[in-house]
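To whoever is on call:

I kicked off a structure prediction for a single chain this morning and the downstream step that reads the tokens threw a length-mismatch warning. I double-checked the sequence; it's 367 residues and nothing unusual in it as far as I can see. Pasting both halves so you can look.
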Amino acid sequence: MKIETKIEKFNEPLYLESGRLLEEFEIIYETYGTLNEDKSNVIIICHALSGSHHAAGRYENEAKAGWWDKFIGDGKAIDTKKYFVICSNNIGSSYGSTSPLSINPSTKKEYRLKFPVLTISDIVNAQMKLYKKLGITNALAVIGGSMGGMQALCYAIEQPTFAKHYIAMACTAYTRPWVIALNKIGIEAIRHDKAFKNGEYDKEDLKVSGLVGLAVGRMAGLIAYLTPALFNRKFARDYVDTDGLYELFGRFEIEKYLEHNSYSFPKFFDPLSYLYICKTINIFDAGRNKDKLEDSFMKIEGKLHLISFADDMLFFPQEMEEIRDIMVKIGKKEQVTYLQVNSSNGHDSFFVEVDKFEEHVKEILKD
């Protein structure tokens, strides 16, 4: 599989929904496969909260492949022998696109807490500028899960002629209080961690020591990304062999798992990016401004394909069923499909249980 990683710099303003702007910005992106002569084989991949542009394949000496490697590659559901796939790192994230740690051209200092709040629409608009620069005016499909699914919905509504198919997985039309509450745990833990220093922490210190506040937020997320049934199946009531049952801070295996996967997170993911991304997710609403959801979905011209996961405890299947029902209600029954996957890995199923929906996606892309 041909993989290329590039950075595109934009010496032009990006006008944001908030009324603010980024005077200039950069997007790091990865491509897979080869663009055909008439540029008709493009598929756009959108990533989730902690995801990146590295969606598939493996860098030299890299222990772990890209986050959707089961789904994207030669001969896979998103076949890179056939399609030219683009995945860009969302602006605001911490993997190389413009973020709170970027230099503000006006002050010559890092933005930090002076970075503007972004919306899903802002992220999509930035990506559209990238495609324009690459000479790409249309895509066969836009595909994403979780926050990436929000982007797919936004593309369908706000860029209705850009793609033929918009595939949104494990997401919602608007963020409910449940998710906002979960995000609040991380936001408060980060803000009140003394090592955060009101956003003026030393980046190198975090690479060595991490940030407890962000680790706590990650724990809350991990609990919601998975399910009680999965925890029971994977950990039961097993106790760590080296810990004493009657030691106050002795641990069950589930506690060890949360520690291992949370305390390492701040060493590679920036806490300011985490705060800003949580805000972006919290304020997402496809029925933005004065539009009702029905008004927003009336703008859709392509085909919208919804995939939910039965045991998703972050964005519940009913939330995606609501989108389907609205599409039917407004007379767009022929433009929407819905699949509920009988999943067993909770919210994370969209990148763990690819085998349960890959044939469905292949059929969509044949149309």
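Update from on-call: the warning came from a stale cache, not from the record. Cleared it. Sanity check on the structure: The radius of gyration is 20 Å.
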